[in-house]
Every structure is written in C-alpha cells, then in structure tokens.
Amino acid sequence: MVRIILIVATIVFSYNELRAIGDDSTYHRFDPNWTKFRSWNNPYEQTIDTSLTLFQRYHPAMRDYFMRNTGNLGYPAYRLIPLLYQSPGLRTGINAFDVYMYKADDVKFYNTRKPYTSLYYLMGSGNEQWFQGNHTQNIGKNYNVGFAFNRIGSDGTYANMRTDYYNILAHQSFKSNNQRYTIDFCAYRNKAVVQFNGGVSADIDSVYINPAYITKKVVPVNLDSATTQITERNLSIKQQIHLGPTYQEKVNDTLTKKQVDTKGVFIHRFDFNENVYRFTDDKTDFAYFPQVLNNTEKTRDSIAMQTISNERRFFLPEQYKLKRDSLPVSNQMSGAIYARHRLYRFAGDAFDNVQNLNIGDEWYKFIKKKPGTFKQTLWSNTGLFINAEYSLIDYNKGEYSYSGTITRRIFQNLLNITYYGNRLMPSVVEQRFRGNHFQWDNRYRAVTNSCFRISYTAFGDKLRVAHAQGILTNPVYFGQNALPVQLNGSVNYSLTSLKLLLKFSKLYFGNEIAGQYFSNEIMQYPRLFSVHSVYYANTVFKKSLQFQIGMDVFNNGNFNPYDFNVNTSQYFVQAQRTYGQYIWTDAFVNLKIRSVRVLFKVDNVLQGILGNGTDLIPKWPLPDRSLKLIVNWMFWN
C-alpha cells in the first residue's frame, strides 16, 4: 500500500509539469506521430498506441475475447476456441506460455524522430509485479536501434504457484540512402520458471468458506516441488534488395535525392532458434501421477529442439498506371513466391532430426483506404488474398496450407469471404514423449482441416458479425488418461460471433459474444461465451486528463473444461467437473495525463456476491478479489 501511495503522489505532483509539456507553441515534447513501427507480420507502419482503449485488459491471457487466465499471471493461457489454422512445419506442441514471450514475427521495428522510451509497471496483491521497458532511437535517418525487457514475478494466491519470467530483446534496422538495401535484425532470450501445485487437494467449495483457511497459502495442494522451466534463444535477420531503376526525387526547390523505382524485391531471412522445455519434481508424487517409470526419487524430463531456418522470397510490388486526365489505376496485384528450408535438431532421443523444405506463394490486393486518391472501380473496391504452401521432404512431407479471401467494400463497410484449409502432421509431443510419468511413441496420421468463413464489418469496426463452418478430420487430442489419442473420423464445427460497440453520449457498451458447436465431445469448449464492457469516458481539467470508469464482465457458460497435465504442459479431456455459471467481473478506472496512463483495477470484484469463486482448470481456483495498479509512461527525449 505504501508503494501505491508513493506512485500516485508522484503522478499528482508531476501533473503541472506533465500538463506543460507540449503547451509551448515553439517546442513540443509529446507527439505519438513521431514514432512509427512495423513488424514482419505487418510490414505497414503504424503509430504507437497511447489511447485508453482496453488499457484495463492488462493480462496477456485475457486481452482477446477467446482467451482466459488460469490462476496466476504467467500461468498457462486457456483458449475458448480451438487453434485450427497453422502453417506447415514441425511444432513442439508446447505453446500455453507463448503469450508471455517474445516472438520474431511480432518484434516491432521502429522509425522515430526522437528517442522513444516506454516504461510499464504493474503492482498487485500477493506480491504480483510486472515490469516492462522499451527504448528505441534513430541514429541518423536510416538506422534504428532499440532494446526491450519483460520481467514478471508473481507468488499467486495458493502455495507453490510462483511464476518468474526473464525476457530480453535487442533489435536494429538499416536502410540505404536510396532504399535499395534494407536489413532487420532481432535477438531475444525468453526464460520462464513456473511452479505448479497440481491444484488444491481439498474440496474446491470448502476453499472459499472453510474458516481454517485464514490465508489461501495454507490450503493443501497436490504438488509442492513441481516446476516447469522454458528457455528460448532466438536470432533472426531479414535482408531485402530492391530491384529497379533509380530516379531523382525532389525534396525541395534546391535538393533532390536518388530513389529506387522498385519493380521487385529479393528477400532473405535467416532464423536460429533454440528451445528447451524442462519439468522437474523432487518427489515422485505417487498420489498425483498415474505411474513412475524410471526414477522413484525425482523427475527430470526435458525436450530440447534447435531450429535453423533459411527463407528466400521474391516479391513483386503493386504497380500503378497513370491514365491521362484521371486518377491512378492499379493494374497489378502484389505477390511473392518463396522457398523455406528448416533443420530441426533434438537432444537425446526426444525426436528424430528432421529437415523441412516448403515452397509457397501469396498474392494480394488491398482496398484503397482513401477512395478519393484512386479511380473508383469494381476492382479498386475489392480486396483479394491468396496463399498456398506445401512441404516436400521428410517427416512433414505432404503437409499443405491454403487460404483465399475476397473483401468487398460496400459503401464504407466491408464484407469478407474466406475459405482455408491445411493438412498437418501431429506435433512432437503428440507423437513422442519419454518421461518419468508418461511415455509414448506414436505413428499418427496427418490431420486435415477445411473451413468456410464469412464476416461483415460496419461503422468503423463498431459492428462485426462472423460465421465459420468447417470439418476437422483425424484430430489428435489428449484423452482422460492424459495420453494422446487420434480420432478415426471427423468433427464438424461452427463458430458464430458478434462484436458490437454502442455509445450513448459519454457512456459506452462493448460486447463480444460467440457461440460454437462441435459434433464430438473431445472438443471441450464452451457453447456460448462472452465479454462485456460498460464504462463512462470523459476529459477534465481543460482536456488535460482523460479518464474511463467502468466494468468488464466475462461469462464462459456451462461446459466441461480441459484439465492440464503439468508434466507435459498439455490440456486433456476430463468429465468429472463442469464449469458453472460464474460471472467474472473486474472494476477499473483508466487515467491518461499526456503520455502517462494509469490503471486502478479490482479483479473479481463481485466475489461473494455472484458466488464464492470458481476454477476453470479443475481444482485450480481462480484468484480471489485483488487490487491492481498499473503505470505506463512514454516519453521522448
């Protein structure tokens, strides 16, 4: 509490200084447009987000409407819808912790007029802390360098559920004066140390009402020394050479600069990744695990995979033809052909070494965002995306993925029609695992999936309706004994979702609702779930202070959730416990003073009113009511 008071006092006493920043008409120290970023997933520059929109959704496992927290910051993320579309290539199958870690495709590469720094600090009940930092600056006009770190530490509500994350990232980008050559570089290290107690051994309902449990730390748990550790190292380099003639571009009345009229781009990407998964337990825990196969005193299980990847891609940019006395008209789609080779190496006998050679292509055309800048035709109001990829050799031979999307602008609204599918071999952990409690060596067939999806977006994304219908053939799942099983047959599925944002003066109602159907009970996902937000937003003190005050409501409906195997980090089917109609509710106050954002939040605020509490993973109680304070300060200097 003392720390909270000190942080709030610092913000209050700094208010006059913060308000003065930018008031001088001759010199401004705060302008988000100074800093742009892009990523390899989205190469188009974006402005950094300084708004309060969804700032209260701080938890990485609850930012998307289909994700949920499982008990502690840093604990495995729980998906309420299946992950069905993935690209060909070998996968470990251990991805429940990915939301807390850096990934190469999501690394942000910046272009900033002034050095930019962002600091983010969370402090919560139960010794919960999260500290993030990000700094980047341009050195000259063509070179940018930056680094970031992410540190999570949380004890959790119950015994032996401490989480610690130590992530660090460095990145840089360079482009030549005429932009013929560009290079991006990033390197990061992720480390997670997560303690698991295997859930409470007491009756779950008594946990909330038993007077003997003065503190939840004394509630008996199943495991007292089980720990998962994940260490990942990654280095990625992406180089581009722009092909085409040069021309002189006019800068002002006296200066010109040489530029490339790009007709094609040759791209080479190199990735080195090393990922080590370890599970340790200093006891055998006969009462919790079904069997002990090797060591009767302790468990030391691991999977270590090293990946070396080279991708070569040739990209054809969109060209424009300027007709006489008219606006420019696009006469060509953008597109690329590529080949990717990957070498996967494993330590010990975790899996056989694998080579992977994929070829693919993608073609797309975007709808122009500014209708007045291009001649309006049926073609200019239509977007198109086509992608296909195929694996040629080794374990993944015969894998493929494809997708096609047509987007049509109707007035200012968008209609999307997509058809996609893939054929993928099971992941490493689904095929083979050699541990102290579980062992298997499978020869499962490929899993195929095909899906049709249609969506309609209107009123600037304030309304979105979508429906998907598909069929999944020969899926691999983990059965009630936590062992992998392949279904000899198909599962039909459908998903319908609605996003609706309503505004009445300064009162906002945000709603995301989804209903889904599966023809087989091995898919243990809720049939209906939703997230609702209601908040009041306004500005005060001559518009220097923005604020939002409101509530988030999460409803998962009635369903049998998956259980979680702490040894293999896999969700598996269970039929003993049903998740009831517990309404998880958070109350929040968002504040923004210039480039400082502050969040005061009470998680599970209606505990004791709508119910005593609940568990999503059976016997893993979700956190009690708790207070959170978050401060995010962005500055340019």
Topology summary:
Blueprint: H1 2-13, H2 15-20, E1 35-38, E2 46-47, E3 67-68, E4 78-79, E5 109-112, E6 116-124, E7 128-138, E8 143-154, E9 163-175, E10 181-196, H3 206-209, E11 226-243, E12 246-250, E13 256-260, E14 264-281, E15 299-316, E16 320-321, E17 329-330, E18 334-346, E19 354-365, E20 382-391, E21 400-410, E22 413-424, H4 428-431, E23 432-434, E24 439-441, E25 447-458, E26 463-473, E27 476-478, E28 484-486, E29 490-504, E30 507-518, E31 528-540, E32 545-555, E33 563-565, E34 570-572, E35 583-593, E36 596-603, E37 626-636
Antiparallel strand pairs: 1-2, 1-5, 3-4, 6-7, 6-37, 7-8, 8-9, 9-10, 10-11, 11-14, 12-13, 14-15, 15-18, 16-17, 18-19, 19-20, 20-21, 21-22, 22-25, 23-24, 25-26, 26-29, 27-28, 29-30, 30-31, 31-32, 32-35, 33-34, 35-36, 36-37
Give the gist of this structure:
The protein is built from 4 helices and 37 strands. By secondary structure, it is mainly β.
Describe this structure in words.
The chain contains 4 helices and 37 strands. The protein has 637 residues and is mainly beta. The protein has a 22-stranded antiparallel beta barrel. A hairpin with a 7-residue loop joins strand 16 and strand 17. The two termini are 32 Å apart.
